[in-house]
């Protein structure tokens, strides 16, 4: 039996709560969310589990230390600068951490100082910290790394992800710009406020696993434009407006592009897919026709990682450092 | 730099030698093969590397203990009863072991006493023992286990492998019955002398990883029959003769078939593929069109597992117990 704390009960967090409440072998012992609409209420109500869970959502993390818990499932923000203090707080409270913070999937890539700080704090506290999720954390980094096990030689690694955002939650549809004009999109993109977080982490994770010295990562970001009107459960996109993103990250090794991560995520996808292409000996082409629903799968990965994280050595780890998480009962 | 011993320099072993000789980061320091045609000769000649390797193939393992080596790459036989003494000898010599012995991929399935004996010997010697390869070891067990990480629920796991044996080595073509009459095949099959080794291990590995209590495994074996004459690099199969095997292993859990491993391996394959189908939340269908050449990929896995095995805790491990092997340089 693993005792879990839900740190962050937002759009993704509530899905984790619902799955955890159903899962044999998990006991929910705490929850934290700063949202005044959630704090003080029963977690089962907040997450619409259909029953009370007997756990009141705390407005802050001050009570974490006194909770008997194994691991905090952390789902608040995408950037390390925003979650650094939260993570250090959980670590100081002596709990393992599984976080969907995108930059935590491989923080050595962009934030080596914070990565070191978290690693040392985790070592000192004897806890393990893992950043994971579907992307970054699985489809565009862990899966190609795992598939490369079959290869005597690897010349290049490409991943093409075409993700149907029409089936995803509203914050994600907003985040990819669905419904914006192309001008709005480009203006926000120039300011760095658009685009998927985590491709640079995925490139660095692949390069590190394969022993390639990454010279630099070049990323491009373009809007996908609606050819006709599109209606999702949450919003409408007129023809000519933005349906989502097309983002490509290229990892340059020895002056050559050896890693290409090509991500389209929009609300007008006709054929979703997740395809890994390794050019090597043997070459490997592996595809998931229809693609993977990122929210559903992220919930799966977070819960499935719990036994691996609890029994791992202390410190800040990446997915490649653990025995493979898998579904467990 | 990892120092390796090649224990077994047969059809598969020589391919591992050639790849190891090319690989940066590996140093070949020893070789063992009982075949009088090989023992006493330079390993580079035996394996047709194109140059001498300065390593003489020893006729037995008596000199292993005095070799400065990290790991023995063991490729001799499929059955644990046949390799038990060899493995215990390597362990006693204080070397880690990576073996393609099919039953070693998950020996708890069929040979729990030998598994325990090897595990305890490995613990006592402080070395790690891993059974791996493409199948068992990867495509029909490790890959579905790894893909299940995305699932909140798993109802069943199926793997369909259609492998083109026309591109494989002669011993493998013979082993699957290519060129036999159906009567010869069935007579040998009744005696237990036909069929792929390892499906039962793969079923048990999946069930164990997912926490399912396996009641029993039911296996069927049928010959694939040539509709027209087929010629491979090594042999000819007339219409009506056997081209290979169709073998299915079903894992029964709670009275239901929850694992199906469906393997066709023959010399008249039109569309090779390796497909994993998980019925769950989410359901996952992942396919490798064209399939994977088992020999080439087994060589890859064996070499790629070296760093993981060398840094693993001692004992007998399965692929699911290690951080994911991946191509390394």
Explain how this protein is built.
The structure is a homodimer of 329-residue chains. Chain A is an alpha/beta fold. Chain A folds into two domains: 2-133 and 297-321, 3-Layer(aba) Sandwich (Rossmann fold), CATH 3.40.50; 142-291, no CATH class. Chain A contains ten helices and 14 strands. Chain A has helices at 11-22, 43-46, 80-92, 112-125, 142-147, 170-175, 182-190, 199-210, 294-304, 306-310, and strands at 2-7, 26-32, 71-74, 96-99, 128-131, 153-164, 214-225, 230-231, 236-237, 242-253, 256-266, 273-281, 284-289, 315-317. Chain A has a six-stranded parallel β-sheet, sandwiched between helices. A six-stranded mixed β-sheet of chain A has the order 7-10-11-6-12-13. A two-stranded antiparallel ribbon of chain A has the order 8-9. In chain A, strand 1 (2-7), helix 1 and strand 2 (26-32) form a beta-alpha-beta unit. In chain A, helix 3 packs parallel to helix 4. Chain A is globular and about 50 Å long. Chains A and B meet through helix 5, strand 13 and helix 9 of A and helix 5, strand 14 and helix 9 of B.
In CATH, the topology of the largest domain in chain A is named: Rossmann fold
| Order of helical and strand elements of chain A | EHEHEHEHEHEHHHEEEEEEEHHE
The figure for the number of domains of chain A is 2
| Number of DSSP E strands of chain A | 14
Strand arrangement within the widest β-sheet of chain A reads 2-1-3-4-5-14
